[in-house]
Amino acid sequence: MSRWLTQLRFVFRSVFRREAVDQDLDEELQDHLQREIDEGLKAGLAPREARYAALRAMGAIAKSKEESRDMRRVNFIDDFVWDLRYASRSLRRSPGFAALAVMIMALGIGANTAVFSVVRAVLLKPLAYRDPDRIVALTGTVSEARKGLYRQVSAVDFQDWHDQSSSFDAMAYYVSRETSVLSGPSAEYARVGAVSPEFFRVFAIEPLVGRFFTVEETKPGSSGAVMISYAYWQSHFGGDSRVLGQAIRMFGRTMPVAGVLPPGFQFPDKTDLWMPAFPRPGETRGGLNYLAAARLRANVSVERAQAEMSSIAQRLEREYPLTNKGRGVAVTGMRDQMVGDVRAPLYLLFGAVSVVLLISCANTATLLLGKATARTREVAVRVALGASRRRIGRQLITESLLLAFPAGVAGLLIAYWGSEALVALAPANLPRLGETSIDMWVLAFTLGISLATSLLFGIVPALYASKVDMNDALKQAGSRSVTGGGLARMRGALVVAEIALAVTLLGGAGLLIKSYVALNTVALGFHPEHALVMRATVPSLTPEDAGQFFSGVLPQIAALPGVSAAGAAMSPPGELSSGSYGAYFVDHMPDQPDIISGPAAMKNVVAPGTFAALGIPLKSGRDFSDADTRGKAFVAVVNEALVRESFRDENPIGRRIFCPFDSSDGMTIIGVVGDVRQGGPDRDPRPECYMTYRQHAFNGNTLSVVVRTAGDPAALTETLRRLARETSPAVPMKFTTMETVLADNLAAPRFRTLLFGLFAGLAVSLATAGVYGVMAFAVGQRSSEIGLRMALGATTGSVLRLIIRQGFVCASLGLALGLAAAVASTRLLTSMLFQVQPNDPWVYLAVAVLLGVVTLAACYVPARRASKIDPLAALRQE
Amino acid sequence: MSKPTDLVQGTLDLLILKIVALEPMHGWAIAQRIRQMSSEVLQVGQSALYPALHKLEQQGWIEAEWKISETNRRAKYYSLTRAGRRALAEESANWERLSGAISAIVRTG
Does domain B4-107 have CATH number 2.60.40.2140? Predict the structure, then answer.
């Protein structure tokens, strides 16, 4: 360490106190000489002879000085300083060129930095908990036969995991949902987590105020207690420490506030309130209702924990084959678990934007090469005067470094706004998106790519300069008629690369756009237009209250002017999160239900009139009516997918169906409705079993009222709010429209399509500019040749063809390479495409046509200029 | 007669370190001492000596100080640093090993 410091001190001294150092050296050598002379005198030589002898003995003093300087690494730094001065002078001489190059690079660097800032926040940054690497998610895994039921675990299985494992310091299960919370004058929605006792120990946090739940408070039958988030404390209690013991009412219970959690902790999913998860009586291994997390013991690896958990899961499989067959458990880092779904799309965008950067580099390299041509003579003269080729190459690279610096700064500015725009555009459910910022890592990244790109685009002209043939270049003095063949080829190759890269991106963008169009035009099975959605939760545990609220409100809403139909659904289309998916049985309920390999359906609770309000067609039978109440025989409506799955050609009306939900009683099928894409436009319809809220009130306390209107649905919001308040002030409401829900479903594909399209557009513009630049330059270089041709009788048309042919060769080579690369790489997009194959020929054809037209247009302008050359003027220039 | 430039790479460094280890010395004296100690076999010219001295100083193995010499002139005295002492031990051991190995081969037959 200290040695490095010493060396650094020397280098600094050598560079900044050069005179002093040189003087030292002079004096030292002078002393040496004097001693040699003294020796000579002692030996009896005359002073003059002694001096000559000494000088002879010492040899070339200048050379030794130079070498000593080299030893001090002075020359290296000296040269760099000179190169910098020289480069800045040469850039100042062509400010237009410098500005263009800086702008192109700034675009590439800025776009990359912006995307990186999001990648860093979402994918790379460690979680903001203590020892984030030790926090893992325990997710249930299932064999293929039961896909759909995944991630969640049952409280019973969890208890076995907890008791039989030794890899963890703490292990907890949790579930969180938005529900009606009363902590002030009126009820409102808040996200509430129900958590098992060790939950807070998993994250190693301590309450900021108050305490955690006592053992008593976590037992079933106790009154319970609530922890609140710092944000909720601030917004609802003004940060007052007298919050402890205040009553909060939710899920039909009143619980006191036990403590406040530290700022920033809102796991999972922006939760504001936490209460103990009271195991329900009769909870089974099939009740997959929870997620689980754990804290690894120090020095226990994820692999070891996984091995232990797998052996526990295998034991459970053997002991309880009916419920646990084919079920395992996966131990994954919590961060990986949180961002698992978004990793591939984000890295893909990152890849796309780095292709844009590559194109920027190629573009800047062609610009620099253009300049290098103009400087061929300068280089040749310097070589002739004894400059080494390496020195000249280094000088050119210094010049590109000098360009990279302002480009990096400008890129950072672009990234500053760009990352804000990205955050605004990105789907709101992208985890950790809010943490996006330009931090030290992002700055380091910008610095890194600025340097790397400057080397990348600087190396081409530097290579070229090292190949300049001094004799040729000097002989050419004054003549511009012959272009260096190597140079033209190099520029041509760069343009081909630019086009190829742009085509690859454009191919991907084309596929995503086509897929997005398909998503917007696919038959949904319902009509999202003119449909207002009001989500309401009746804070009551008695089924009657809930039923009363909705049955009181719905007829009033249906009678409003401008309303054509009104209904209510537990999980309206597009809101899969509120849905329930599980096994169903036809005709009779087996004693040992095979819930593993048997058919499964979405279970939905609706009010009469819901199908009409959503525009779901009734295919046969009837809708529910107000007469289907709890006292009457249970009835159900199924969709066509369920009929296809279980009834084939038979008539399902009148048959019995069992959907174990809040009740396993059999229901008579009274109607069949059309299929709906329940999980959003990109998911295929699943079998669905509808029940009526009057018979299944247990799951009917939170419903989304759906209102079909004649005009703008949002205009009805206030009327509905007033109606609901009049019916019950304790019911919180949330309004949206069916079209908004749909737009949210499409947020992720819209985001990636938009960005991919943007990057592809940028790539094509840059490539086109590259083609134009190269062609314009070529025309300039060949102007006297063209003049000569025209003087010899070439027509305007033949000159046009001559130039365009050159561009055409570049364009078609680039197109061919790019299409090949696109076919090879767009397979990565497969999972993000909807009803489009990654090798869709029409998309590639469109890409080819678009790029062909654009590049030919870029060639045409310079070609046209070439055909206007006045032969006399061109030849006179010689 | 062997000139230092013909010496095995790094040998001059070893000689300088060895000489300077005895006492702080200026460049000319170092050259003299090498000549004397090698019984006039090794002659180091300033063109090799000073770059080597500056390199060793740059590496932090020797340090320099201007002093008034016995002739009443200012002279730059070089002395060994702690890092230099370690380097000397290492280089000497290396040299012993290498020269021993070479001798062993040369002497056979």
Answer: no
Residue in the block written with tokens 């800047």: A364
**Cα–Cα distance measured from residue B29 to residue B69, given in angstroms and rounded to the nearest whole number:** 11
Q: How far apart are CA A307 and CA A309, in angstroms?
A: 6
Q: Which helix (H) or strand (E) holds A32?
A: helix A18-42
**Interatomic CA distance for residues A519 and A553, integer angstroms:** 35
The count of residues in chain B is 109
Quote the CA–CA distance of A267 and A227 in Å, as a whole number. Answer: 12
Using DSSP's 3-state secondary structure scheme, residue A671 falls into strand
For the segment B75-88, what is each residue's pLDDT rounded down to a tens digit? 888 988 888 899 88
ipTM of the complex, rounded to two decimals = 0.78
* CA dist., res. A508 & res. A818, Å (int): 11
Residues A217, A276 contacting (CB under 8 angstroms): yes
Average pLDDT (A371-397) is 75
- CA of B65 to nearest chain A CA: how many angstroms apart? 11
Question: B25-56 in b/e burial notation, b at 16+ Cβ within 10 A?
Answer: bbbbbbbbbbeeeeeeebebbbbbbbbbbbbb
Going from N- to C-terminal start, the domains of chain B cover: 4-107
- Are A3 and B51 an interchain contact pair (Cβ–Cβ within 8 Å)? no
Q: What is the dihedral of CA A870, A871, A873, A875, to 10 degrees?
A: 160
A264: left (phi over 0), alpha (psi -120 to 50) or beta: left
3-state secondary structure of A60: coil
- In this complex, how many residue pairs, one in chain A and one in chain B, have their CB atoms less than 8 Å apart? 69
Between β-strands B25-26 and A702-709, what pairing exists: parallel, antiparallel or unpaired? Answer: unpaired
Q: Please list every residue in chain A whose beta carbon sits closer than 8 Å to the beta carbon of residue B54.
A: 68, 71-72
A28 touches chain B (CB under 8 A): yes
Q: Which of A150-159, A261-270, A590-599, B27-36 has the lowest mean pLDDT?
A: A590-599
Packing angle, helices A2-16 and A18-42, rounded to 10: 90
Encoded tokens for A316: 């459970």
Which of helix, strand or coil describes residue B47?
Answer: helix
**CA pair distance A101, A85, nearest whole angstrom:** 19
Q: How far apart are CA A632 and CA A625, in angstroms?
A: 12
